Amino acid sequence: MDIDAWVWWLIGAAGLGIPLVLTAMPEFGMFAVGAVAAAVVAALGGGIVAQVLVFVIVSVALIAVVRLIAGRQRADRAPRHATGIDALKGRQAVVLERVDGAGGRIKLAGEVWSARALDAGISFEPGQQVDVVDIDGATAVVM
Question: Which of 49, 52, 82, 137 satisfies CB 3.0 to 4.6 Å to 87 for a cystine?
Answer without folding.
Answer: 82
